Amino acid sequence: MWKPWLLRLHRWVTLVFAIPLAVIVLSGLVLSFEPVAQVTSIAPGSLTLATVEDLLARHDPEGKARSLTFRSYENRMSIGGVRPDDTIDVDVRTGAELTEDGAASNLFYYSRVLHETLMLDLGWLVHVSTMAMLLLVVLGIAMGWPRLANSLSGWHKATAWFLLPLLVLSPLTGLFLAWGISFAGSPTGRAEPLAVAEAVRVIGARHDLSNLVWLRGRGGRLLARLVVNGEYRVHAVTRDGLEPASRNWPRLLHEGNFAGIWSGLMNVVISIAFVALMTTGLLIWAKRRFRRRPQRTRTQQAAGPMAA
User: Fold this and answer.
1) Backbone dihedral region of 178: left (phi > 0), alpha (psi from -120 to 50 degrees) or beta?
2) Fewest CB atoms less than 10 Å from the CB: which of 99, 110, 237, 254?
3) CA nearest 261: which of 219, 214, 229, 290?
4) What are the pLDDT digits (tens) for 56-114?
């Protein structure tokens, strides 16, 4: 009884949010490859403490740096805080300053802006569209287990049902991030923030700096994100060493960086599934929509002479 109405609501929600959802899903597909690129390009021992200290001495002699970001897939390190409104990008192999943006890092950067704000400061629309995505999943579940067939509709339904847990996971963790829900506590205690050069020495004493993702200040502390056994782990950096922060599982799951290449590929599969669902769903609607029009036209033409 309710199924036709649920199906109609399912179609209308898809049509109304088709454009923002397409942008979110496609940009998410691109971002799914970022942790894969970062992890697979790490060469152990390629970024040593001596190298980083030399880069800081050359490009930040006054010790103004407030952050470091290392993109292993481009051998690029960004030093933030040295210049008022810009970062200094350097090639970790040659030590030379890079004056052009990297193609891969640019692609990931603009994909993230699209994914989070649609490039127009429309974060609220991203949140509403993500809730609409979850609503579509709920409506699909409410319509019950479908009859699977080797057809466009059958493949649409099979993709939705067999990948259901993953299709719920992605938008749900996205909303958790938007609402600041992390299930993670802050590192215990307080400590005087270190200078970046000193923090690098603390990290280098415990970890291979080739695994560094970023080093930056947050909440009055200096935090470092490192790849540890394929997982992105955050540590508070103090003079006494590194203090691991509790895991932010919504971020780890949403970004696909909790199990190296495998979690990244999981997000690739999720993104492709959403692309397939949107494409097949719109094709099913279009086929039904435009298939009915000729029938109505023929009925009106046949009824015309009789009416006359």
Assistant:
1) alpha
2) 99
3) 229
4) 999 999 999 999 999 999 999 999 999 888 899 999 999 999 999 999 999 999 999 99
Alpha-carbon distance 188 to 223, whole Å? 13
Give the three-class secondary structure for 91. Answer: strand
Question: Which residues touch 253 (CB under 8 Å, ≥6 apart)?
Answer: 169, 173, 263
Answer yes or no: are the C-beta atoms of 218 and 212 closer than 8 Å.
Answer: no
Give the residue from 246, 266, 295 where a domain finishes. Answer: 246
Instruction: Tell me, yes or no, whether 96 lies in a domain.
Output: no
CA distance 246 to 263: 19
Give the H or E element holding residue 166. helix 164-178
- Are 70 and 150 part of one and the same domain? no
Longest Cα–Cα distance of the chain, Å, equals: 95
Q: Which two tokens stand for residue 118?
A: 């649609």
Nearest one of 231, 239, 275 to 257, comparing CA atoms:
231
Any residues with CB less than 8 A from the CB of 185 and at least 6 apart, and which? 245, 246
Q: Which amino acid is at 178?
A: A
Answer whether 264's CB lies under 8 Å from 33's CB: yes
